[in-house]
Amino acid sequence: MAAEGDDDEGAPGPSVNVDGRSDVVETVQSTPAKGSSNSFVHGRLLPVEIDWRDRYERLKLQGYVLRPRFRPGWQPSWVETGTSRYLAEDFLSHKTRNTIDATRVKDNSIVVIKRIPSGDTSSEFRIGSFFTTLDTPRDPRNHCVPILDSFEIEGEDSIYVVMPLFREFDDPPFYSIKEVIDFVQQTLEGTKFMHDHRVAHRDLSTYNIMMDGGPLYPNGFHPSHQNRTVSGTELLKGRRRRLHSSPVFYYLIDFGLSTKYDGDEPYEAIGIDGQDRDAPELQRLATGPYDPFLLDIFTLGNVYKKSLLDNYTNLEFLRPLVERMTQRTPKDRPTISEVIAMFEPIYAARNRPSFRRRLHPPDERRFERNVLDIIASLRDTKYMTSYFFTYWFRVLTFRRPWKT
Hints:
Residues 1-22 are annotated as: Disordered. By secondary structure, the protein is α+β, with helices and mostly antiparallel strands. It has helices at residues 47-53, 56-61, 77-81, 121-132, 177-196, 292-309, 319-325, 336-348, 366-396, and strands spanning 64-65, 99-104, 109-117, 149-151, 158-164, 167-168, 199-200, 209-211, 250-252, 259-260.
């Protein structure tokens, strides 16, 4: 996903693929000259978009409406009005083959629809459904993406799975050390929840960890180009992460390679599919079966290394944990329970002042870092002072001391 402000002068950026795989088709769209008789060419659909357009009416019958761009007979609105194409929502293309956003008619919420070949239902759909229906109410340790709905379309060898709209876990970037600790805790908790139910993810890598962006963007964001507003006509001016923003919830997605085991150990898997090519088990020269649960430990530890340790200089306290998780020899890696035991003292101290500090990117100069640290400290002090007085004012006036 594009970072906030990176929009190439409003041209469509990368779209969201809930399964984390890259499936991009390039195109060129330009504003037609006045009087052009071939105006549709300048707003043509991509091949993957035509595929979804042809399913527009059948998805609508299921209660899901695609964006105006995918309506049968669509004509570019900017051609008809003569306005800039960059101010038209239907100029924003969609580039993923197996997923698309839609509006759910019954509550007007934006969701993501994923098309899964029926042959894959023994893994992705079965395991996703298992975690969705496992507990009522939902166990807070369950970080597996919930399936909101599923249906089939007559004549197709596919099943359509409906899920919430999420963002990449580091978009916007982390701001404070405490936010990183919360992220690590939730992802470890979610992994343990899976492993406790004998499910190995087997592709637990960067693009398969997402977050609910609602707390950071209460006014929403465009589902396909998430650096834009819901209308698609402006760059997003939502919140960046701050220490005092509402907490976010992280989710593990895409169970296409996952395996659910019955019975007791040993648990074994074969195959080299997966995003993380650093994992020794998934390298081309790897031979023989491997423990898929220890593969999850490596790939999750590699997420922490590449997305956290390599991007911020004041997270060194996580390095011993990450080094244990990413041992090249699988038997030298800890189990998920052992990882959580190692992490528990860090999580217990998450509210201490040193963990409330802002994160330090490696390219910051010392003077810049000191100035930004002072500003962050003043903001934190201002918030805590305001919270303290608000809390006791509500207590003394016989109101609930928490905000409603």
